[in-house]
Amino acid sequence: MAELSKKDIIAFLKKANQEFQAIALQQGIKWQAANFEPTENGNYKIAMPNRPNMGHFLSELPASLEFSQTIQETNLFNFYLKKYTVEKPAWLNSEMLMRGVLDSYFGVCANFEFETELADEVADNFIKSWETGKTSYVFRAVLRGAYGEIEEIKISDDLKIRRMTDSELRRHMEWFTKSINEDALPYNRYILELIRTEHHDDTGIHFPHIISALRLIQPGAVKYETAYQRSKIGEITAGSSSEGYPLHKRPPVKNTYLLTDNVANELLIFYPLFQKDDFGKMLNIALSRLNIAAERVSPEDGILDALIALEAVYGDGQGAIGYKIGMRCAVFLETEWEMRSKIKDDIAKAYSWRSAVVHGSKKKNSFLEAQKQADQIYDLVRCSIKKILKLKSEGKDIPSAEDFDLALLGKL
């Protein structure tokens, strides 16, 4: 056979579907796709999938074996074999290519009925990918706590935040049923997505930097869960090489972080600064403590982390720490006397609370009171670091303790 065509791939999928349907009928295999419907109170009625284990059956179908053999006989497959004589890429495997087409179709279809439009899309994607011979590695992570109507924030050519469609959410639920808590979907519709043409995990660098930048831009709880990877040839999944990792913490359902055009614009300013990573020791400490505070369950622990962050920004390691931190922060962030006075008082209360904890005389506050105080101090840290990074983006130096004192004297 000279080459594959869309018609050939659609015919293969139709035949494989018929063969699998016959097996399912014979063995009494049931199929329920993932689904969700909005309810009147703003929640969702969720039906988790009961998808048959098709992996074993699909690769043993006569149509699958025939298609794998057909791929090996194409001119393009043999061209690639000659091209990659030294180091053959992982995708250059007829069985993996066959499984990629099967997974792309059966991983999305809702039941045993053949879906012509879906088959046409799968075939079209495969032909485009097959002709380029390029492998892509896609890393994704669900962005917890984010909501909005914005469809996509493009951070770079290969890195973005985007909103999942209903179809993607259903597919996501089916792929990772065991690792994702039911109440996280479909409330969390945004994902972080990184596409690489080489097989290495950049998520360990990029995703945390995006989260740090988002936390600086505005209030609201946002985080990502452990990323998972899918190897793809173009838009076709290469085999069943997806990896899902169990979540160690229950993800929040309540969305508090609104993604807007303004957030998108500011993200493009702050994210490159995190990539350069030249903040200096003290600002790095402040950023680290800000992120730790954002993950805390206990508001008391969050207050302690936020105070350490404020000291890293405004402190000088000498006496009267609480007083100096309050004065410097107030003058740096605000121009109006009333707002400056409030900031100074809020920080003084936080230090008074910390002192009581250290000396064992802390009065028991309600959770709501502690959370309110934690939010206030956290926001002061956020606004302080954000303003400093804006100065840095303009080519200015990071202010020192002496600079803040000059500001108190009206010299800065």
How does this structure look, described?
- The protein is an alpha+beta fold and 412 residues long.
- The chain folds into three domains: 1-133, no CATH class; 134-276, no CATH class; 278-408, no CATH class.
- The protein contains 15 helices and eleven strands.
- The chain has helices spanning 6-27, 55-60, 62-72, 75-83, 94-106, 116-132, 166-175, 203-217, 261-276, 281-295, 299-314, 321-333, 337-358, 367-393, 401-408, and strands at 35-38, 44-47, 135-144, 146-147, 152-156, 159-163, 190-196, 223-224, 228-233, 236-237, 257-258.
- Strands 3, 5, 6, 7, 8, 9 and 10 form a seven-stranded antiparallel sheet that branches.
- The radius of gyration is 27 Å and the shape is elongated.
- The chain starts with 5 loop residues before the first helix and ends with a helix.
- Residues 233-252 have low confidence and may be disordered.
Features:
53% helix; single chain; 412 residues; 11 strands; 7-stranded antiparallel sheet; 3 domains; 12% strand; alpha+beta
Provide a short characterization of the protein structure.
Helix content is 53%, strand content 12%. The protein is α+β, with helices and mostly antiparallel strands and 412 residues long.
Number of helices: 15
Q: Structural class, judged by helices and strands?
A: alpha+beta
The biggest beta sheet is recorded as: 7 strands, antiparallel
Q: What distance separates the N and C termini?
A: 77 Å
Question: How many strand segments?
Answer: 11
- What is the average per-residue confidence, as pLDDT, rounded to a whole number? 81
Roughly how many Å is the radius of gyration? Answer: 27 Å
Helix percent band: 40-55%
Low-confidence stretches: 233-252
Beta-sheet strand percentage?
5-15%
Q: In total, how many domains does the architecture comprise?
A: 3
Shape: elongated
Helix and strand run: HEEHHHHHEEEEHEHEEEEHHHHHHH
